[in-house]
Design goal:
alpha/beta; six-stranded mixed beta sheet; four-stranded antiparallel beta sheet; 9 helices; 28% strand
């Protein structure tokens, strides 16, 4: 198990040029747990994650990792504890999968140190965990979108950090591989104690896999806590402008959101007519 690291945002104000995206935001990430950040497009989810990984400097406030401001930490020192998988990473042209995943070991390399057996083992384990071992010798730019995403996740795993931030890690993946990746991250958390913070668009996947759910709206945190407390019909309406019904998932026991639509409601179908014999329809 890894040691617990405390990641906190205090009074955070973030923006781009003349546009303020987030103002006076406070957030405490539960150490050793899985946190999912959800919200509508352009609500500030990715902006918050960028600042937590020191890619975006705050206009006010600060992000603290174990009491130290991340924006004042040496980059390599921070990268040994905190890793980031951004939303749209770019690979150098012609680089192979194994070489890209191997770059995750850079924070562990000293000025005069050489590639070690530990580095080989970390890369091999990351490739195997993401089912990309058979792609090791292929150029990254020849892969499909889903394959590339799994390779980037492998690089993040090879970094072997105690805190891992992921911005839409299921992007480009089909349903089967989405579940595979989230199972992998959950296992990483359960077996190593890695603190996971990830931005997800799928509310139901977020509620199923997260211990701690953060719902954002208009650059602020609308609700945060256990999924059962956060994922409610009122929250979905306030954050997404969507009418829904939230029930208990019979498999996971977590809340499950059933979208009804924008200001729509389900009505029983009076009687089958024509080819459409569905028992319910949207009114």
């Amino acid at each position: 198990m890894t040691s617990a690291h405390r990641l906190v945002a205090e009074g955070l104000a973030l923006g781009y040029k003349d546009r303020l995206v987030i103002s006076s935001l406070d957030l405490q990430v539960p150490p050793g747990r899985v946190t999912a950040i959800v919200g509508a497009n352009a609500c500030g989810k990715s902006t918050l994650l960028r600042s937590m990984s020191r890619l975006l400097a705050p206009r006010a406030g600060h992000v603290l990792l174990d009491g130290k401001q991340v924006h004042r930490c040496p980059a390599k020192e921070l990268a040994r504890t905190l890793g980031l998988l951004p939303q749209s990473p770019l690979a150098p042209e012609g680089i192979t999968v194994s070489d890209l995943v191997g770059r995750g070991r850079h924070p562990h390399q000293g000025v005069f140190s050489r590639w070690s057996r530990d580095d080989d083992a970390a890369v091999a384990a990351a490739l195997e965990a993401t089912n990309t071992l058979d792609l090791a010798d292929r150029p990254v730019d020849e892969l499909s979108g889903g394959q590339r995403q799994r390779v980037w996740i492998a690089m993040a795993l090879a970094q072997q950090t105690d805190v891992l931030l992921l911005d839409e890690p299921t992007t480009f993946l089909d349903v089967s591989h989405q579940v595979e990746v989230l199972d992998l991250l959950t296992d990483l958390n359960r077996h190593r104690g890695t603190t996971i913070v990830m931005v997800l668009h799928d509310l139901n996947l977020a509620a199923r896999y997260a211990d701690h759910l953060v719902a954002m709206a208009d650059g602020a945190i609308y609700a945060a806590g256990e999924p059962e407390a956060v994922l409610t019909a009122d929250t979905v309406r306030a954050v997404f402008g969507l009418d829904s019904q939230v029930i208990v998932d019979p498999i996971s026991g977590r809340p499950l959101m059933l979208p009804i639509g924008r200001h729509r409601r389900l009505q029983p179908h009076a009687a089958p007519s024509g080819p459409d014999t569905a028992g319910q329809r949207l009114a």
